[in-house]
Structures are given as C-alpha cells and as structure tokens.
Amino acid sequence: MRRLVLIVALGMATPPDAQAQNDAASKIEELALVDRQWQEAVVRGDAEFIERRTSGSFVFTHGGGTRSDTKADWLRITRQVPRRFLERKTSKQSVELHGDVGLVFGRLDIQVSRGPDSGASCYALEYVHLYAFENGQWMFLSHRTMKGLEALHPCAPK
User: Fold this and answer.
1) How far is it, in rounded angstroms, from Cα 11 to Cα 3?
2) What is the pLDDT of residues 86-108, one digit of tens each?
3) Residue span of the structural domain in which 64 resides
4) Is residue 10 part of a domain?
5) 141 within 8 A of 58, measured Cβ to Cβ
C-alpha cells in the first residue's frame, strides 16, 4: 500500500520541464499584458504607470527611424489635455523571452484626435518592443515601428 501511495504521489508531481514551461508561459502572458497596459495608460493619461514601467533610457523610434522620443516625451504626451491619443490597441502579439529580456512583436491600431471639432484619424503599424525584467517587474526599454500598415485616414464610425 505504501508503495502505491508513493507511486501515485510521484506521478502527480510536476516534472521540472513542465514547471519551466509553465513559468515561461506565465512570463509571456504577463509581458503581453504589460505591453497592452502601457498603450492603455497613454490613452487614459496614467503617467504614474508610464513612470513606473518605463526605463530611464527608453527610446521610442518612429517609422523610418528619423525621429525618436524619450521617456520624458511620453510622460508629457500622457499628461497632455485634451488627450491626443483616443485609442492605442495592440493585437497579434508574439512574445520571445531571452532570460530577463523579452521582445514583443505586434500590431498597434491608433486613433488620434484631430482637434476639438475635427473628429479623429486612424492608422496602424507593426512594432517591436524590448523589455527587461528588473526588480520584479517588466520595464519598457524600446519601441521601434517596423512598418506602417495603414496610412493616416479618417476613422470609420464605430
């Protein structure tokens, strides 16, 4: 009987490889969530989130690589009233982990205000985001626009 209990208990233990896969899957989900939350924080004007989750050396490189922004620029954009960004929605996210460094590839659909009485414009792009796991949390290090998917155009009514 004791042997049967031991065999059953051993069979129920999670193999080390399975545990490592579970940990990796959890980190991937967490990083994809932080990536979405960062974009949502810009829309909500949540500068505290941007401050907490963005590295001091952050670089945001726009399409074509001719213009880049810093963390300070994005804090200013996030605090701006009225809000410039009405929506920043991530999709098609793919996450790669390399130890304490993560890459997020995805699509970003953006809706921007054209002014108080002018409606909104929309565009979409593919991006790569670089994160590092520091002090128990993912920190945003870099954004690079890889290519524009949809040029700036009037948004379709919702």
Assistant:
1) 12
2) 999 999 999 999 999 999 999 99
3) 16-154
4) no
5) yes
- Token couple for 96: 């790669």
What are the helix (H) ranges across the chain?
A: 2-12, 16-44, 47-53, 71-79
**Cβ-based neighbours of 111, under 8 Å, separated by 6 or more:** 85, 86, 87, 88, 120, 121, 122, 155
CA neighbor of 128 nearest in space, from 110, 106, 97, 151: 106
Residue 7 is assigned to a structural domain of this protein: no
Asked if the structure places residue 39 within a domain, the reply is: yes
Cα 12 from Cα 101, distance rounded (Å): 32
User: 5 lies in a domain?
Assistant: no
Q: What is the pTM of this model?
A: 0.85
pLDDT digits (tens, 9 = 90+) for 119-130: 899 999 999 999
